[in-house]
Amino acid sequence: DLSVDVRERLSIELADCVVFPSKYLENLYLRTGGFLPRRHVFQPYPTDLVEADLLETQFGKVTTLVFYGKHTEHKGYFDFCQAILDLFGNPSYEWACAKIKKIVILGSTAPDERLFKLKGIEIECGVFSRDEALEKLHAFAPHSLVVMPYKGDNHPLSTFEVINSNSQFLAYNAGGLPEQLPTELHAQVLCEP
Fold it and tell me: How far apart are CA 193 and CA 174, in angstroms?
C-alpha cells in the first residue's frame, strides 16, 4: 500500500532520531530503501546471550521436527515443508527418518497435504496464542529440533523464545537472526537458505 510506504518514509525521515535494533534493518532502510533520516543510531536489543546459554546436555534423541512461525514464504514455511519431503524421499537418510515420529507446525492450521502421506509420522499443527506456543516448545524441547527458516526477519523474537524453551534449533543465516547469536555458534545452528 503506497500510503503506508509514504507514512513510513515520512516517519523515519522526519524523526529526530531513528534507532535500529539490527544491522540488517539499518541496511534495509538506509541502503536498500534509500531512507534519509536526520540522525540514526544502532542499538541492539539488550540481550546477553553467551555460548553457555545455548549449550544443553540434557537433550534426548530427536524424534520431533518443529516449525515455529507463520504459514508464509517469508517465514520459510514452504522451505520447511519441501525440506521434510526431500529428507523423507531420499533413501540415503532413511536411518535418520526412522527416528522421526512427529512433525509439529506451530503457526498453521492447514499444513501441506503431502506431509500427511509420510508413513508412520504424526502431524500436529495449529495457530496458538504466544503462551500456548511457548508451552508446546517447552514440552517438545528434550526430543525436538525446532527449524526456523526465516528468510529476512529483522530481529525475530521467536529466536529467544526457542532458546528459552531449551530447544535445539536450526535457522537460516539470513536477516537479523545471526546478529542475535554469538558468532562462535553460527556454524552449529545456522545454515544457508
Answer: 7
Q: Over the chain, what is the mean pLDDT?
A: 89
- Kindly indicate the confidence band of residue 16, based on its pLDDT and cuts at 50, 70 and 90: very high
Distance between CA atoms of 99 and 182, rounded to whole angstroms? 30
Is the predicted pLDDT of residue 68 greater than 80, yes or no? yes
Element (H, E) at 106: strand 102-106
Spatial separation of the C-alpha atoms in residues 25 and 19, rounded to whole Å? 10
**Rounded to an integer, what distance in angstroms lies between the CA atom of residue 157 and that of residue 136?**
16
| Nearest alpha-carbon partner for 150 in 73, 97, 39, 62 | 73
Classified as helix, coil or strand, 79 is: helix
Contact (CB, 8 A) for 178 and 190: yes
**pTM higher than 0.85:** no
**How many degrees, rounded to 5, is the angle at CA 172 between CA 171 and CA 174?**
130
Nine-digit cell string for 167: 530447544
Q: Are the beta carbons of 41 and 17 closer than 8 angstroms?
A: yes
Tally of CB atoms within 10 A around 69: 22
C-alpha to C-alpha distance for 22 and 125, rounded to whole angstroms: 31
